[in-house]
Amino acid sequence: MIGIYDQNGLDVQDIVYFGLFALQHRGQESAGIAVANSEMLYHKGMGWVGDVFDEQTLNSLKGGKAAIGHVRYSTSSDRMYTNAQPLVTKYKGGTMAFTHEGKLVNAESLRRDLEEAGTIFQTNLDIEVIANLIARNIDSGFEEALKKTVGMVKGAYALLMMTEEKLVAVRDPLGIRPLALGKLDDSFVVASENCAFDTIGAEFIRDVKPGEILIIDKDGMTSIQTPVPLESALCIFEFVYFARTDSTIDGISVYAARKESGARLAAEHPVDADLVIGVPDSGITAAIGYAEASGIAYGEGFIKNRYVGRVFIRSSQQMREQGVRIKLNALRRMVKGKRLVVIDDSIVRGTTSKKIVEMLRLAGAKEVHMRISSPPVRFPCPYGIDIETTDELIGHSYDVEEIRKIIGAASLGYLSLEGLLKTVEGSGCDFCRGCFCGKYPII
Q1: In the listed set 229, 249, 267, which residue is the last one of a domain according to the structure?
Q2: CA angle 334, 337, 338 (to 5 degrees)
Q3: Considering the entire predicted model, what is its pTM?
Q4: What mean pLDDT value characterizes the chain?
């Protein structure tokens, strides 16, 4: 997500458009932009940002004071146009537009209560529940409605909301999903990751605090701090896979964390080999760290097709397998006859790892030793990552040696959870590591 409230005469739709390109790694199913003008203008569609928007579409959104944009990564049960964001809805005070990242754990019960009270829903989106809660409490005032809603919903969420006059940003009380605040001249910008600020020329100010509500309008910015637990729970999988390598989240450089994970992996699982290679893109930095710590040469082992999206968030097993084949190709000249250490960020379903080992062996690799810069993913995620059941997780059903045999590697080693947590020390926040250990901060 990205949003901006303009104080400088900017074309806000263009700013959000370019910001969404920087955040495309977070979602590739749909994209959308809403602009607050005399009326709420919006456009959204299925596909990548470049597929959904062209110059004519962007020109039709000109003239706004504020804008929000979204790229969607959904779970398998709700991939449809009606669930593309932003969600634009009318209420008695005007029109509101919403974007949301994450998942509410009590959305079903809240939706049921609202339906029993007469509310009609048009989508499967958690954000529609939030929109209705705000609308139902609006008589108590805009700020009170926001605070009441935050007190009612539970789960992981980062939220951008826009009225004709205001831009609102909210981060969940546990800080599970990231959200960053920046400034472009005098205009405030909010985004899922601060790497988007570099793309649009904005300056990173700080992370939005867990439980914080930011209200931005023509008079500036107001911060409202809602009650929060003693410990936060930022999703540690952001550092393993989801975040872009050049982002910084809650004071921790994603690049530094990934490089350190590779170094710790080398100490925990050394191997006698000729070359260290990384699986593009999120395995590359850890591979550099492994090579430096082990003294084994680092090299490029894969050529990546830059026009293929992230395989993990594909909608079906068949698509994931096809995605691996067209996304990566082994660099035969580099790997032939070599004993390889292959660094990847995680093994979720096993699809990618098995194909990678096969690809490297067919290219002539003598040995393929897989090293994973995170612990085994053993448990589902209730907070919006598309791992809904343990049936999908190879780490839940098999031990490390069994997984090694399934993927066909000469050896397999995972970074320990203790080692992974060492890579994010100094952030001042705690972390959700439920997908690794099965303990969740809120259910």
Answers
A1: 229
A2: 65
A3: 0.92
A4: 93
